[in-house]
Design goal:
Radius of gyration: 15 Å
Shape: globular
Helix content: 25-40%
Strand content: 35-45%
Number of strands: 10
Structural class: alpha+beta
Distance between the termini: 36 Å
Order of helices and strands: HHEEEEEEEEHHEE
């Protein structure tokens, strides 16, 4: 497995990986199944165990554009961490996929209960967001963030 900063093995120390995976459950997706759609409520996330998922974004007047394809060990979904908990991308299994699935509320509670664990998980999600930003801008799009107490708004756009 690569040392990519978005892979769980590089992003989280072993005790935090064990803690996180201990509160997840194993779930599989067949090729072609949508994990989530842009604009829907974000109440969970996944760490891929095997397979590949495509992350896509809607583009006015055309089909969604695939912007990234996470693989084993990588995080799929970050909107669960930011109110109002709305998916900013869509995701579809490109191959049969095995995952660890996590309930966002359970993970948020664990993060609040242990600030060091919460900081480590939050830092990991931040690294993933940095890559999303780089990919969107490489496609000629924009990625902006605004924040106010209790709400963070992400706006991801690609040119039509």
């Amino acid at each position: 497995m690569s040392g990519s900063p978005t892979r769980i093995t590089a992003a989280l120390p072993a005790p935090y990986r064990a803690r996180l995976t201990g509160i997840g459950r194993e779930i599989n997706f067949a090729q072609g199944v949508r994990l989530f759609d842009e604009g829907d409520h974000a109440d969970r996330f996944w760490i891929l165990r095997s397979g590949t998922v495509s992350l896509d974004i809607r583009v006015p007047g055309s089909a969604p554009v695939v912007i990234e394809s996470p693989g084993p060990g990588e995080l799929v979904g970050w909107s669960w961490l930011f109110k109002p908990y709305i998916w900013h991308l869509g995701a579809e299994a490109m191959t049969p996929v095995r995952t660890h699935e996590f309930d966002a509320e359970t993970v948020l509670t664990a993060m609040d209960a242990d600030p060091a664990f919460g900081s480590a998980v939050g830092h990991w999600v931040g690294q993933v967001l940095a890559i999303v930003h780089a990919v969107i801008t490489a496609h000629g799009g924009t990625a902006t963030v605004t924040s106010s107490p209790g709400q963070t708004t992400f706006r991801l756009t690609l040119p039509a």
